[in-house]
Amino acid sequence: MSASTSNKFLAHHFDSMTQQREAVTFGMWLFLVTEAMFFGGVFAGYTVYYLYYPKMFHLMSNQLDVKLGAINTAVLLTSSLTMALAVNAAQRGNRKKLVALLASTLVLSLVFLVIKFFEYRHKFHTGMVPGTGFHFMNPFGDRAQMFMSFYFAATGIHGIHVIIGAFFIGLFTWRAHKGCYPSENYQPVEILGLYWHFVDLVWIYVFPLFYLIGRSG
Amino acid sequence: MDSHSEQHHHSTTPYFIVYTLLMALLVLTVAMAYVHFGHFNIPLALLVATIKAMMVIWIFMHVKDSSPMVLACIVGTVMMLTVGAMLLLSDYLTR
Prior knowledge:
The structure holds two protein chains of two kinds.
Chain A: H1 17-52, H2 54-61, H3 66-92, H4 95-125, H5 145-177, H6 187-211
Helix pairs in contact in A: 1-2, 1-5, 1-6, 3-4, 3-6, 4-5, 5-6
Chain B: H1 13-33, H2 41-60, H3 68-92
């Protein structure tokens, strides 16, 4: 009883909407697999250097702002909720709700980036950016740059993903407003949601590994 | 309202439940970080993160209702990352 009859959202190389939906979802998941392997490389490097220099990692981790990191985690988790609700609104064909929820997700992604900007700016001001500008006094000397390199690499590529996500969420908000995603064609919104939840997933691991490892002692 | 419609019109209740749990686990991770568990601080933090990740994947990303191929993608990723990490550490930790 599902939409097996032809409709304008069914690409000609698929037999049914169900088949199209499964293929598109699977394709997105394959992309997310490569993304997970990509971030996995950063976490693998982090693990090796953590095991070599645990005390330095603890000290440098304590220089990060837990409050801002936790707030940003909450912001991303909330944006994941609004995105999940947006997909639901798209399924139900509720255009007004869809636009409002996508716009909320966009605002939250921008809030995340603004908070990240202030965190980065603080690191520049206190000489904690690896390279010639590094002059953060600490018992480990220049070696402490290693932690900050991982910090900027991990949060940097994550930040780029947030920027790309924000761009597409903005685009989808506009297209949803124009009525491009009625309930028969909610799937693009669901695929956008998969990407956005993945960005959230990465941060779920980045937050404890960078902000919390040195707090207990 | 929408009884037996063609697409699954899921209730939004699970999303709010998962969101509440995610926020609670965020508070728990931060609180746990200040308690001294010795070598177990990081494994415990990663355990909580993995519970959060599984909820996001299962409910927010609809894997609960997706085809088994999607689940195979995820299991495959975890396996590849595990093998990669094991090979990497068996090198660096035995030098």
